[in-house]
Amino acid sequence: MSIAKKKQMAAGKPSNKSASAGLEGVAASVQAERELLIGILETLSHSRNMNEYLEQLVKQVQNYVGCHCVGIRLLDDEGNIPYLSYTGFSQEFYESESPLCIVSGQCMCINVIKGNIKPGLPFYTDDGSFFSNGTTKLLASLPEEIIGQTRGICSQYGYESVALVPMRQKGRISGLIHLADENENKISLGRVKFLERVGVYIGEALHTFAAEEVLKESEKRYRDLYDEAPNAYFSVGIDGCIRQANRSAVELLGYSLDEMIGKPVLTLYADTPNGKDKAQKMFQGFVAGEEIRGEELEMCRADGSRVWVSLSVRAIRDREGRVVASRSGIVDITERKKLDQLKDEFIGLVSHELRTPLTVIIGSLNTVLSEGERLSPGEIRQLLQDAAEESESLSHLLGNLLELSRAQAERLFLYTEPVSIHKIVGDSVDKIQKQSLGHRFVIDLTRELPLVQADPLRLERILYNLLENAVKYSPHGGEIRVFAKPERDGLVIGIADQGVGISMDDQAKLFGPFQRLEQPIADRVKGAGLGLLVCRRLVEAHGGRIWAESEPGQGSTFFFTLPLEPVAT
After folding, report:
1. Long-range residue pairs from 498-506, CB within 8 A, at least 24 positions apart, any chain
2. CB 357, CB 393: distance < 8 Å
């Protein structure tokens, strides 16, 4: 073999040294790809949310590619592609680039997101990435029609090496990985192509995180709604123990949340027929899958006090249809139950108050008609007098009932006029004095009192009710005084007695519906407990207010105000 032939063969055969370097490069590239994949998978498994995942992801991509800047952009429902996470980019570049929208903007980022690429152009890869290691030279070489499709922002901010790699979710481009560096030739095509393959996994992971965060937000909204609901809710397992309770349930029953969870639900009910006994039957119904609505039960608070509730229960089932828990809602109806009891007592009281005068009236008149010939004129007169007085009492009771019904129906109309308080007070005292000769009435009014703007008939009813109330609760021979004093906005009228007085607890509910004093004397006093409520309705209809001042054993004074007659100008 000639010497020339040997040289030619030697020149065509690679040296061991260059072959070794090539293999080392391939091995290093494979190792880098392996480390990136492992890092992405580990980050995915350890990250608690999308933000944490993205922060780690941009660092891993930056280490893998070796460029200074990395950003992750995600397409939202409105077409915006903001940076969800980035590193290395200047704040000015971020503020200029982040508001980009595929609906109205033009940019290489938008072309990649939309998939509007031309594979024949040297700066696009076959899988849809934009790639350039010299943006200044690239822009100088492009025709105007191509330059018009990009804003050239990366080049304006000095980024020479740029790559835009699409991320995909179920075949659809959902975002991109933005790589950039101020130096040329910092991004290898091989690593861009590897990121194109990795971008599928990243896109799926981001979609999963987004779905989980939507679910978490939905669960949080439900939890907030559950916790802040005005009604009380709790969940009971098939074992009869409480699994969950909201804030209203905790506050209503007086336990802490920790005390409620795990507590046997039957221990929350009062030891009464409408408590545990009824709750036990309802629990058995819930286990059988029955739905319970609006059942009234007595529950027991942590401090031992009782509360009436309206309970509704719905069964929670598993996928096989088996009952595994209940969702219970309770509404505090204690005040309603008290009011119902008061109404029942009131109906009985009014029935009695109506029957009593009617019995006297009917009895007196029948006696006069049947026994008139054998009765003396004085006896006949007394019977007729009794019938007349009871008729007056009945008329007054019916008048109060009528006023209340008008107020309830919002049909309480006043017919006001300038009124002198002297005449109305005098007439009212005369009426009540005829029925109560055992009390002393004092009218303490100055002559200079101004006129008030009032309905005369309603004003007389207010005074009569207050005077009658003073008579009922004052001792025989006691003094009842009526006085008045002008104030800046009206006239204050007072009725003072020397009666038993009123406790602070009773004062707080004096003017409520169906209220009577909780004192032994109240049991001996006639009346339906309507008078003060009627006074309040009528006084407030005039634009005034009514209140009482009293101490037990010291008598009581009831005050009310009326507007003055407007002064003519």
Report:
1. 498/474, 498/555, 499/470, 499/473, 499/474, 499/475, 499/555, 499/556, 500/473, 500/552, 500/553, 501/550, 501/551, 501/552, 501/553, 501/554, 501/555, 501/556, 502/548, 502/550, 502/552, 502/556, 503/552
2. yes
What is the pLDDT confidence band of residue 182, given thresholds at 50, 70 and 90? Answer: very high
How far lies 39's CA from each of 60, 198, 505, in Å? 7, 12, 72
- pLDDT digits 0-9 by tens, 22-60: 556 566 667 777 777 777 777 766 666 778 888 888 898
Residue 203 CB contacts under 8 Å (≥ 6 apart), including other chains = 167, 168, 169, 174, 175
Joined together, the tokens standing for residue 516 give: 């009577």
224/260 Cα distance (integer angstroms): 19
What the block records as the tokens of 433 is: 């004095």
Pair of tokens at residue 119: 């594979």
The residue behind tokens 């004096």 is 510
β-sheet with 242-245: strand ranges across: 242-245, 232-237, 323-332, 306-317, 292-300
> How many degrees, rounded to 5, is the angle at CA 154 between CA 153 and CA 156?
60
Q: Are the CB atoms for 540 and 358 separated by under 8 Å?
A: no
